[in-house]
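Lecture notes, unit on binding sites. The following record was shown on slide 14. It pairs a sequence with MRU.
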Amino acid sequence: MKIAGRPHTTIWPTPAGVEIIDQTRLPHRFETVEIADLEAAARAISHMQVRGAPLIGVTAAYGLAFGLSADPSDAGLAAAKARLRATRPTAVNLRWALERVGARVAPLPAEERFAAARAEAALIAQEDVALCEAIGEHGLALVREAATRKGGGRVNVLTHCNAGWLATVDWGTATAPIYKAHDAGIDVHVYVDETRPRNQGASLTAFELGEHGVPHTLVVDNAGGHLMQHGEIDLVLVGTDRTTASGDVCNKIGTYLKALAAFDNDVPFYVCAPSPSIDFSMSDGVAQIPIELRAEEEVTHICGLGDDGELARVRLSPKGTKALNPAFDVTPARLVTGLVTERGVIAANARAIAATFRR
Ligand code: MRU
């Protein structure tokens, strides 16, 4: 998608490695960082310079390749996978990408592993763009339907966190249908949840929608239910970090509450789910999906741009206040209207998922 009118992706190859947009600096600073070794890739994922399930997967794939350039032995491969896997526990794309690259290189002689891993990482990145674009096409039909229901009136979409192009290589998952609709001339407007504590909505979704010219309004996380009660939301579109084989959806903390409110107000609640974010080994999201617990400081403190133009971090709560910071929650399948996958819009249940992906 576009930044300052020019097409961009979130990660791109350089002669030495890859370059990423440092998402901890957005929206106030646009800075890129080059990553050329395993440790830098692992740190970029843990510190959330890159984040969002698909982009975490792509970065991990490149990180594994860089690890193999330093040590292409079986022990090196195992150690690099373990290091990257330990960075963030919830998004299954991380494990998926590591297993895919690992399986590609394991049968090869050591001297061929780095090049093969790097090529596989590039392929994963390229495929991610295609998956997201396909999700955009299938989701576009949902936005069109909503526009028709409203007699061509403005379609209001609510989204949570950033499941935008910054969370993927390009297009995004939840935002792909929005970009497609906007580009097709449909009057689409997005309510952007700020998404405490890290404010991916306020800082990233608002940034990327603004750069692409999509009309949007930032709302506090608690506003969604109220807006739905007053007919202000036609469609909820969110992403996913891990969807079980039974259709339970794990996504950014607060997604579950939006799904409950949508269910109570008959608002369609769709999850945009590329197949690498489906965990076919799990069937009970609440019981089985590991939920990342992040630092208390993300809750007790907040970062922003001061009036002096400098980035600042300030405390919100009294000194010493304890905070709990689960980063994700699980929305049970029964609250999900449908999954927008690269193969079409399907029901969030075991039968539809298995039939679509032939498992
Ligand atoms: O903690 P984050 O910023 O990595 O969480 C991101 C999300 O929860 C996204 O909604 C999810 O990864 C889907 S991204 C297409």
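Take-home: The chain has a mean pLDDT of 97.
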